[in-house]
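I trust your eye. Have a critical look at both lines of this record:
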Amino acid sequence: MPFLVAMFAALAVFRYSGALKLLEFALGPALRALGFPPELLPMALMRPLSGSGSLGVMGEILARPDASEFLKFTSAVMFGSTETTFYVLAVYFGSVGVTRIRHALIAGLTADVVGLMMAVVIGRAMFSV
């Protein structure tokens, strides 16, 4: 339980301090060059950490009237195609006392990256004009 509380506290500090927006601004040109919309960076960073945090980010994207349908649908695909990797490692592995999580962490984060990339590809194929 202490790991979970620490993770949520760090997540809230990162988000409400403005560091997340600053990171989005700094990485924007590189992300655009890769074909990844910078507006989805908060969702991509939040999803492996927290399901409720990423649901909040997705809700903010869906509530923005200036956001395109592509962004809205792609954020929903991201939400459904990735896992809360760090939450799973902290809660499930911690509850049974698993301490060697290196391979599970690598596999989980690899699956998250593939899920995020494919969400953008599928979003562009199905919802882009």
Q: What stands out?
A: The helical segments are 2-16, 19-34, 41-46, 51-63, 69-81, 85-96, 102-127. Residues 102-127 form the longest helix (26 residues). The mean pLDDT is 87. DSSP finds seven helices and no strands in the chain.
